[in-house]
């Protein structure tokens, strides 16, 4: 089998989730990815379970299959190292702000003088132009809050909903990947370097573009509803007797209400004028949702699984992360990957969310320890052993042995 990005070299100067996550998928696709970290390490290291716990699930997820180099970018020789690596790279990925890219001589303008055919890729919160281009951001701010999502997934009058870490970042990872692959194709057609930009705020707008496009036409915000007055039980969520939930989604055009009512044991609803049409059900939503709540509360979710499936209704269990991890369908999809060659022992991580039949595509190996491949990367870039020893001794570069000895 052939790896889709075999022969492609990626240089990553990025931290946290979105940009490293995109580079991790490039590694899955067969690219040779060098991750450049500061000598203190990516701030994602140890963030979720603490610095002494291995495997480190967040860092492993977004940095698997990469080689690691720890270098001091505040040092002129450190910048020179990265420039040397850029001359051999096809793709450069960063989430440094515009100011930091300029400070460390890593902007597209500078790197294209060093590597004219490089695809320079920036992940930002708000872009690189406009009055707030340099505003610092995480996905919680630029994606969920500023991007309009948080206001749309809450009940009227309620507080903004909370989101789980990395949701916006990993969505942005896929946008970065798509843009880079298109730019790679364009570079190969024209022979010219490309500049790619992905902003969390823009990615968020795309994810809610069904709502946003309607707002652009009507000039009004999408209508929000409390669950207790949801316009249709066919697109609502219900709690079962065992405190587990089910979610239904049958928006039309076929009206499944008849099958739904019979499944709930309330065929009399079909003769009730209040529920005779979708419009009538919307007008009497509060009574109908309350009646459905009583019905679903009478049986466990396992029982409802049998009934809803037998009726051919479109629904899903509202699963916990633990349930998803053991879901047979997730296994059939290949959602999880068993990382067998980690020093801490085998553990599962999450595969990229697509498949390419017949291609060599998948997790290549664990994430690098801090500075693990520094000497190897420098040697591959043409530095001789004396030059490498000099960079390490003066603290421009950290290698794995220094980290192990606590000298980083």
Explain the overall architecture.
With 408 residues, this protein is α/β, with parallel strands linked by helices. It folds into 2 domains: 9-208 and 334-404, Crotonobetainyl-coa:carnitine coa-transferase, domain 1 (Rossmann fold, 3-Layer(aba) Sandwich), CATH 3.40.50; 227-321, formyl-coa transferase, domain 3 (2-Layer Sandwich), CATH 3.30.1540. It contains 19 helices and 12 strands. Strands 6-5-4-1-2-3-12 form a 7-stranded mixed sheet, with helices on both faces. The chain is elongated and about 85 Å long.
As laid out across the biggest beta sheet, the strand order is 6-5-4-1-2-3-12
The amount of beta strand, in percent, is 5-15%
> How confident overall, as mean pLDDT?
96
Strand pairing plus helix content: what structural class?
A: alpha/beta
Number of helices: 19
Q: What is the number of domains?
A: 2
What is the CATH homologous superfamily assignment of the largest domain?
A: Crotonobetainyl-coa:carnitine coa-transferase, domain 1
Largest β sheet strand count, sense and barrel closure: 7 strands, mixed
Q: Percent of residues in helical segments?
A: 25-40%
- Overall body shape: elongated
CATH topology of the largest domain: Rossmann fold
Radius of gyration: 26 Å
CATH architecture of the largest domain: 3-Layer(aba) Sandwich
List low-pLDDT spans: 404-408
Distance between the amino and carboxyl termini: 40 Å
